[in-house]
Amino acid sequence: MAATTPTRQFDRAPVLFKVDYRTVDRFFTDFAENLSAGGMFISTPRPLDPGSFIIIEFILPVTQKTLKVKAEVMWARKRAIAANERRGMGVRFKDLTQEDRERIEAIVSSLRRVP
Question: Is 99 helix (H, G, I), strand (E, B) or coil?
Fold first, then answer.
């Protein structure tokens, strides 16, 4: 039986914008490199361990609306293996409002249409 790749629940788009995030006792500023209504990839030389919870604050591209959302680190890439990979972590949003989810979906949709 062949291995299958899990399908994504949400479309994602490449982006580059600053994100501020914090744990209970630390504060960080790094950059998001992709975005979906379900979460984002944060490029960082010091990814947190999977299962860590963070509060992320960022300004949405296009709308310039500031979002503050709780997220969980789902996976971490502590070492880049391929030349096109960066160290970082994939995070999943935990308490995104329906309005903000729809706003992100619209942005992702518009960014995916850009040639």
Answer: helix
- Name 114's Cβ contacts closer than 8 Å, sequence gap at least 6: none
How many whole angstroms separate alpha carbon 46 and alpha carbon 26? 12
Domain boundaries, the chain: 12-113
- What lies within 8 Å, CB to CB, of 99 at 6+ separation is none
Question: Which tokens belong to 23?
Answer: 């744990």
The dihedral over CA atoms of 88, 94, 97, 103, expressed in degrees to the nearest 10, equals 20
List, for residues 2-39, the tens digit of each pLDDT value: 444 345 578 888 899 999 999 999 999 999 999 999 99
Q: How many Cβ atoms sit within 10 Å of the Cβ of residue 66?
A: 9
* Alpha carbon of residue 102 to chain centroid: 16
Class of 12-113 in CATH: mainly beta
Question: Nearest CA to 22 among 91, 83, 87?
Answer: 91
Tell me how far apart the alpha carbons of residues 41 and 74 are, in angstroms, rounded to a whole number.
10
